[in-house]
Design goal:
Elements lengths: L10 H8 L4 H5 L2 H11 L45 E5 L4 H10 L4 E6 L4 H6 L7 E5 L14 H4 L4 E4 L20 H10 L4 H10 L5 H19 L6 E5 L12 H4 L4 H19 L2 E7 L1 E3 L9 H4 L10 E6 L6 E3 H13 L6 E8 L6 H9 L2
Parallel strand pairs: 1-2, 1-4, 2-3, 4-5, 5-6, 6-10, 7-9
Antiparallel strand pairs: 8-10
């Protein structure tokens, strides 16, 4: 299964997200959004996932062969990651996280933090056992445990890449295991709080569900605190995979996406990372993808996963831009490659930038490096 070859068109979703935001959408109530999403994702309507799915052998659109030589990193200093350094990937079992971990293992040792080191996940990293170690830790359960299960993965980590996330609206992904409906909890919270969405979300946070506040804000702070406590080697940089729209929460269509606070939570998580980097003396990078597309198609309830949507063959080029100004969608393989490249060529330090796929052929690795170094 080659994730670079899927060709299901995504034009209908793109039209909905970019051009179909009519005045009706502007007036759509947040409560209606909650009801639609929670009922859609109740058990009766959830897709059936077949057991024993053979995880794909990933081929990235860039050639990282044995003969490839990484260019000298500009501004190289003690904070520059070196081949063989260790990077902890938080959320290494997610659709993006495992691609990031796999790609980083080309150059670095990887400590993958996962909720469960399943046999399917181990199969995904088959042949990389000497470079990818898996550590089990449920971040939400660690709120009351002080992050004890995180410490072994962070002790020898020179850098951290945070790939965790949840859906913008209540779905099965909000459940503690990520596998059950949260419809009952959502409706009860709405009724108990007289349909105040903000207060209802607060109740769901308190239940310990995988809400945006818990995943994108509190869990990020927990990881950074544990790294500060556990780290026994030089700390060089932290990278967070965030989202476009975090700095445009008042601009359509992002208020709809932020109806349950996902962009607010990511903004708080970003602020924690910047503050910690400044205090601890390491660098940070915030990478902002658009809506995620492309395989592997398992493990969550995002639209692009549910309908196995992918960028068509003519939309493989990569655009990057400082700040939060781009619009578009992003292939998971593109996001993984860009994440690895900022480490390998020492680019994107102490800044945030967006990355989306646009019309055109997949760029060469040298072209990606040039675009990142020009930021």
């Amino acid at each position: 299964l080659d994730i670079t070859t899927y060709s299901t068109p995504s034009s209908s979703i793109a039209a909905l997200s970019k051009k179909g935001m009519t005045r009706y959408a502007l007036s759509m109530s947040i409560i209606t959004l909650l009801f639609v999403n929670t009922f859609y994702h109740c058990d009766a309507f959830s897709p059936t996932f077949i057991g024993g799915f053979a995880l794909p052998k990933i081929q990235f659109p860039w050639d990282n062969s044995e003969n490839f030589q990484f260019p000298s990193a500009s501004g190289e200093n003690s904070s520059t990651l070196k081949p063989g350094d260790t990077i902890a990937v938080i959320g290494a079992s997610g659709n993006v996280g495992k691609l990031v971990a796999l790609r980083l293992s080309d150059t670095y040792k990887v400590n993958g933090v996962v909720r469960s080191a399943s046999s399917e996940l181990k199969q995904f990293f088959e042949g990389r056992e000497d470079r990818v170690k898996l550590f089990e830790s449920d971040l939400l359960e660690e709120f009351d445990q002080g992050g004890e299960s995180l410490l072994p993965a962070l002790r020898d980590a020179n850098a951290i890449v945070i790939c965790t996330g949840t859906t913008a609206f209540p779905t099965n992904a909000w459940s503690k295991s990520g596998e059950f409906s949260v419809t009952d909890e959502v409706l009860k919270s709405l009724v108990d709080n007289k349909f105040s969405v903000k207060d209802a979300i607060g109740d769901l946070d308190a239940l310990g569900l995988n809400t945006p506040n818990n995943v994108d804000d509190r869990a990020n702070s927990l990881v950074l605190d544990c790294w500060k406590k556990a780290g026994k080697v030089p700390k060089k940089r932290v990278i967070m995979l965030s989202s476009i729209g975090v700095q445009r929460r008042a601009t359509m269509p992002f208020p709809i996406l932020n109806a349950c606070g996902v962009l607010d939570a990511k903004a708080a998580g970003e602020a924690s990372i910047k503050k910690s980097a400044e205090e601890q003396g390491y660098s940070y990078t915030i990478i902002r993808p658009g809506q995620l597309f492309g395989g592997p198609y398992d493990n969550n309830y995002y639209l692009g996963t549910l309908f196995q949507l992918d960028k068509d063959a003519a939309t493989q080029d990569v655009e990057v831009g400082k700040g939060d100004e781009l619009l578009g969608d992003t292939l998971r393989s593109t996001l993984a490659e860009v994440t690895a490249q900022v480490c390998e060529v020492n680019s994107g330090k102490n800044m945030d930038f967006a990355v989306v796929n646009v019309k055109g052929d997949a760029p060469t690795v040298e072209m990606v490096q040039e675009r990142l170094q020009a930021l």
